[in-house]
Amino acid sequence: MTDYSKPPYPPQQQSMPGYTDRMKPAPDHGEATYAGSGRLTGKRAVITGGDSGIGRAVALAYAREGADILISYLEEDEDARVTANLVESEKRNAILVKGDIQHSGHCKAIVEKAVSELGGIDILVNNAAHQATFKNLEDISDEEWDLTFRVNIHAMFYLTRAAVPHMRPGSSIINTASINSDDPNPILLPYATTKGAIHNFTAGLAQLLAEKGIRVNAVAPGPIWTPLIPSTMPAKMVENFGKNTPMKRAGQPAELATAYVMLADPLSSYVSGATIAVTGGRPFL
């Protein structure tokens, strides 16, 4: 309750997609706190949106648990390099792949790179997302609606379809959903709608892939302090971000990492079709 600062946060706005080093306070990805115990030794993970925020925290945790990582990111070269350095400091391989996952061909290229550079895929973390805020329905353009679906749900399908033929029994797919899939914020209508789709995609895919021995689960974060926030939300919302939770603050990326580790851990062999809520006490049904 006291380790992290509570709102109001300092006034700050960024252009999309947002950068970690411009955030105040700086997000915590577990750099000084996460201690691994070999739970993912020898595993090979693909993490989209792995350059910053939740993706960086997961990449760091996975590396400290013994996994090699492919980090997929859009264009944030500096953030991606920092994440790669964190992975490499744990003596694990870090492969950077820059590009836009809304395109099926790029998703296929990500998988091919993981297979050629890491030797295969044991864990796929579909984490990257696009969001924007809108006060009025008529402000949402056709292009914005399409982009949100292409990044948030189409890419998840493209990546999964490409990766599954390379995944052995015991492999794990983890999708980043959101509290918005259960409790949609109206000003995030396109984003929240895709997050509801991810929830159903996860549940259906878990059933479809069970006979292959591949588990599929989701993590549903509440308000988490990542570059997505100051780059996509109005100033007043950024200032008070997370204040509406029982814990009265935003969560930090580091506070989600253990959920992703647990779902990737081979010891979680009977966990599939589940959604783990990390929401600071806000109900998730």
Which descriptors would you attach to this protein?
single chain, 285 residues, alpha/beta, Rossmann fold, seven-stranded parallel beta sheet, 8 helices
Blueprint (SSEs and pairs):
Blueprint: E1 44-48, H1 53-64, E2 68-73, H2 77-88, E3 94-98, H3 104-118, E4 123-126, H4 142-163, E5 172-176, H5 189-209, E6 215-221, H6 228-232, H7 235-239, H8 254-264, E7 275-278
Parallel strand pairs: 1-2, 1-4, 2-3, 4-5, 5-6, 6-7
Helix pairs in contact: 1-2, 1-8, 3-4, 4-5
**Tally of individual helices:** 8
Largest sheet: 7 strands, parallel
N-to-C CA distance: 24 Å
Mean pLDDT: 96
Which range does the strand content fall in? 5-15%
Q: What is the fold-level CATH name, i.e. the topology?
A: Rossmann fold
**What gyration radius follows from the Cα positions, in whole Å?**
17 Å
- Spell out the CATH superfamily: NAD(P)-binding Rossmann-like Domain
Q: How many distinct folded domains?
A: 1
Q: What is the helix fraction of residues, given as a range?
A: 25-40%
CATH class designation: Alpha Beta
Order of strands across the biggest sheet? 3-2-1-4-5-6-7
User: Can you tell me the overall shape?
Assistant: globular
**Could you give the count of β-strands?**
7
What would your notes on this structure say?
With 285 residues, this protein is of the alpha/beta class. It has a single domain (37-278), classed as 3-Layer(aba) Sandwich (Rossmann fold), CATH 3.40.50.720. It has 8 helices and 7 strands, in the order βαβαβαβαβαβαααβ. Strands 3-2-1-4-5-6-7 form a 7-stranded parallel β-sheet, with helices on both faces. Helix 1 (53-64) packs parallel to helix 2, helix 1 packs across helix 8 (254-264) and helix 3 (104-118) runs parallel beside helix 4 (142-163).
